[in-house]
Amino acid sequence: MIRLLRIDDRLVHGQVALTWTPAVGAECLVVANDKVAKDDFLKMTMNLAKPANAKLLIKSIADTVTFLSDERSKPMKILVLVNSVQDAAALAGALPEIRSINFGGIRAREGARAISKAITVTDADVIVIRDLLARGIELEVRQVPTDELRSIETLL
């Protein structure tokens, strides 16, 4: 069962390991990212950052959909991590059980504007965000679980 789908361009790091994993009771972290799934060095660094009491799976977006659609994954408490709005939308489009997406951190990049201290979005991101909102998916902004939940819609 997916406990949280989080967009964070750092993927696995201290905030995820020390606050989000215990807050949602995750026993398995799934990094859904086509690039990381093919890069042994990035896989190694993600494994070093993961919490000791959680399993880490690193899969492509397509393989993540397959894994999360499998009945054998349903009893697991899963935290899914992606690094882009587009990847989150791809998972939400393929997995109807995803009804909420957490925006944790998307750093400055070319063509993006800041909408909060930790989130920047491009015009293409905004189009995808508005589509997700129109489909009734909750899009909340929180860096850590104790932050006040804010809808991304109020920041656009």
TrEMBL record:
SUPFAM superfamilies noted in UniProt: PTS IIb component (SSF52728)
GO CC field: cytoplasm
Phosphoprotein recorded as keyword: no
MF annotations from Gene Ontology: kinase activity; protein-N(PI)-phosphohistidine-sugar phosphotransferase activity
UniProt keyword Ribosomal protein present: no
Keyword set, alphabetical order: Cytoplasm, Kinase, Phosphotransferase system, Sugar transport, Transferase, Transport
Predominant subcellular localization, coarse grouping: cytoplasm
UniProt xrefs under PROSITE patterns: PTS_EIIB_TYPE_4
InterPro entries assigned: PTS_IIB_sorbose-sp (IPR004720), PTS_IIB_sorbose-sp_sf (IPR036667)
Protein's cellular compartments: Cytoplasm
Any GO BP: phosphoenolpyruvate-dependent sugar phosphotransferase system
Residue ranges constituting the PTS EIIB type-4 domain according to the UniProt record: 1-156
Short name of one Pfam family: PTSIIB_sorb
Protein name, per record: PTS system, mannose-specific IIB component
